[in-house]
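Most newcomers find our protein records easier to grasp once they have seen one. Read left to right, the backbone structure tokens trace the chain's path through space. Nothing more is needed to start thinking about how sequence determines fold. An example says more than a description, so a record of this kind follows:
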Amino acid sequence: KQWYQRRVAITAGRIILLKEGTDTSQGVPQIVSNINACQMVVEAIRTTLGPRGMDKLIVDSREKVTISNDGATILGLLDIVHPAAKTLVDIARSQDAEVGDGTTTVTLLAGEFMKQAKPYIEDGMNSQIIIRSFRKATSFALKKIQEVQVTVKRDDPMEQRELLKKCASTSMCSKLIAYNKDFFSDMVVDAVMCLDTLLPLNMIGIKKVTGGSVTDSQLIGGVAFKKTFSYAGFEMQPKTYKQPKVLSLNIELELKAERDNAECRIDNVEEYQRIVDAEWNILYAKLDLMAASGAKIILSKLPIGDVATQYFADRDIFCAGRVTQEDLNRTVKACGGTILTTVNDIRDQDMGLCQLFEEVQIGNERYNLFTGCPKAKTCTLILRGGAEQFIDETERSLHDAIMIVRRALKNDSIVAGGGAIEMELSKELRNYAKTIHGKEQLLITAYAKALEIIPRQLCDNAGFDAITILNKLRQKHAQDDSSSGGKWMGVDITSEDIADNFEACVWEPSIVKINALTAACEACCTILSIDETVKNPNSNYKAPNALPGNQF
């Protein structure tokens, strides 16, 4: 008798509702099991936090090697299968998409919230009480962040630029490029300032060229893309133009081979020649119209064949086919004009313009550069480095820094990093808990203790004595008043002590901490609210159709 059919049968006094082999677990053991699974995920990335954090080397199923200490990247590559632990992957991705940085922080906070709640769950406390208390504590913490955050004046461009540079430097402190953070901070700020008011991320192009030093990386105030595939005659075309007109197309300019299933019956050679001539005349008619438009640079998303390449070379016109859609869009954004699908009516407003076009050698690659664009709202970062894995990690690090600078431009409020804001919130929450009676007092105190995981982990990763450093921080924050400035005291990695991280310019946009606390609390509450897991078995064959009357 097959038990794989969905039925309700009464056997030996019990009701069988699910398929045989279905895994079900519920109650307190299930909540504790989910918490333990999340703790294993946190342990995997715990050591990547901070300027002294370690990197992880991950080899995927296709033998691709990735070296990174970015929380979202690592969690995305771990291929986690536990259904509850995937929640941490989701919040790391949301943090990366929303603010760009703090992915490891949000994962650590969520794991520590669960760790602090675990003893109360095991003692039989209702999880809804814990959820309510943690949400109340998060709401209080967010209000405190808004009270202590420092707003930088936007009317002073120099002061605003320094703010953005400090935020970018803080973001890169924990990356592989930490020793070159000053070099890349200026580059990242210049890149973001090139954009329009909406700050579209896709208008910052990043190209990677293996070889050279990391300091050979450069920012192009315009568009740069790798030389595309070319035919004979390309080397005869000029490689430098001043104030050229740029024509962007989505047209194929080559002679196409006949289709395999096409058939054309002819009686004599003259008819065949007329067919061939018609095809060539169509192509040359398009080429003549483009040459007559006055354009000196012709770009197309589709291929440009050898006949068209030689035609343009004879008339001192540069052409490039198979340009990617992203690069073509950014070229139009920078130089102006539109992407045409026909050449029958080319107007001046349909063509772009730039001050200088040149093809240059960068490493072993040749790049086409458009600079001095009048409508330049885009830029290109060309990254150099010795190893491909290092360049990939540099790209991820700059992505985080760019996201932070974008957020700092939109939300010009900052707080001190290095565990300073977490210690201040922990102190405020402990004081707040004393004003509340009942079980919530214990839970809010546990929430406050969980926030200390950030400075503690910074100390552990740097090899410091975490107990001594945390005791000093608690003392300084407890003595805080309006004149002492103790609220910004945090871990000083360079001197193995504590310092005023606001004066040390360890700054982070407050939106990073707000989003991290919110996401971590929601993830913790989601895990604590799950008291049963039902996992259906995988069936390797299709169950037979049920007989009449045997299926409910």
